[in-house]
Amino acid sequence: MAQVQWLDEVYKRKDQLVEELVKFLSIESILDESTAGSGAPFGAKIAEALQFMLDLGERDGFRTRNVDGYAGHIEYGHGEELIGVLAHVDVVPAGDGWTTHPFDPSIRDGKLYARGAIDDKGPAMAAYFAMKMIKELGLSVSKRIRLILGGDEESYWRCMKYYFEREEMPGMGFTPDADFPLIIAEKGFLDMKVMGTSEQARLKGYEWVLDEFVAGQRVNMVPDYAMAKLTGPGDVFDLKMKVQEFLMTHQIQGFAEEADDHLKIIMKGRAHHGSEPEKGLNAALELARFLKEVELDVEGARYIQMINDLFVDSFFGEKLGIAQEDDRVGKLTVNAGVFQYKHREDHYVRINVRYPIKGNSSEILTEIEEKVSNYGMRLTDIDHKPAHFCEPEHPLVQTLARVYEEQTGQKAELMAIGGGTYARTLDTGVAFGPVFPGKPETAHQKDEFIELEDLFKATAIYAQAIYELAK
Ligand SMILES: [Zn+2]
């Protein structure tokens, strides 16, 4: 058989690819417990997005399976062995500042803008069309190929946990949910809540009561918005002036607003992926930096002090005493992603720590536990995902690297990242694309996009890769 011209085959189907992707991106598949139910554990919209993909598979003649709305798969081919391609259908919340509506996909200058365009619906659709091409070209494969789609990647990974408790583990596989060329190592993750219990502390000698402090929606994102509500006998005018002064000196957007019985302070930052907290602007940390200079009630002051002492200006765990690095994945990072404080109620900060391959998770936890205990706080809701590593000599790595080199003419450098992908849920797995070297990273940010040419190139690469692994 003549050699398949993979990219040409993609171009023959490109209108259809974009059309289906636009439909897929229009579904607001954000985690929503309020609409969760049977068959929709992560809410109605994530269930709809999953079913959308499975319906495509059904329509095109693949075997499909919906595993109780947690995850599902689209399968092709016959054989003992199974190759897995893992992608997710859920997206992070849109955040502020979009040029066009995040769920009304828009094409400008060859770029498709929408929440999920690059993370991870674009790549999921690319992988689907890759499989579809192999099927339509009638290429013979000796292994089964499964596109496995999860619904909770951006939050708690309940999807793949549930799925792999019930379904077969692929012999090897990849996930199109990071960067090209190839990611063989990923940092370990520790998510936790730094929890404080209200002791109904006395309110003697205060100027302001910290009535509320809220920021962030996801632990893996840098919060771009923070709000504090203050009440008390303090001088409102004076405090408003101080806010203005702080915003000016620190070049931060925000404002203070007076209401009947309180003063509200808003600060705006810059959202960024939680794996690179130093590249965003954490609105909550800036607001806490400001509030440190305000005379607050005992409990409020302690919360703000803790944030300043442990997190402000410390993205690599320096203040927590857990800073470390290796030459594969670099530095340990700390993202303080969700803040919740209400006067006389329990309060918390949710943090995401990403540590190097050889990091010791229990040592890290012990250290953090000790630090937060100085503020009467403790750790709860700890979620651990160990670091992940795939041997460079493994046939999976060798094959994907060769395919990448053939299609791009570029050397396939093996990389390591701080992000966590589904690759780590596989016994043998790597992350493979979709962001090409030198291209901006827009995942989890406003105006997220995928360049259409990159989408087509990625589809061609995935098609050849799947074929070479399964032939
Ligand atoms: Zn993703």
TrEMBL record:
It comes from the Bacteria. The keyword Protease applies. Signal peptide: none annotated. One of its GO terms (biological process) is proteolysis. GO terms for molecular function: acetylornithine deacetylase activity; dipeptidase activity; metallopeptidase activity; zinc ion binding. The keyword Zinc applies. Residues 263-373 form the Peptidase M20 dimerisation domain. It holds the Pfam family Peptidase_M20. Belongs to the peptidase M20A family. This is Succinyl-diaminopimelate desuccinylase. It comes from Thermoflavimicrobium dichotomicum.
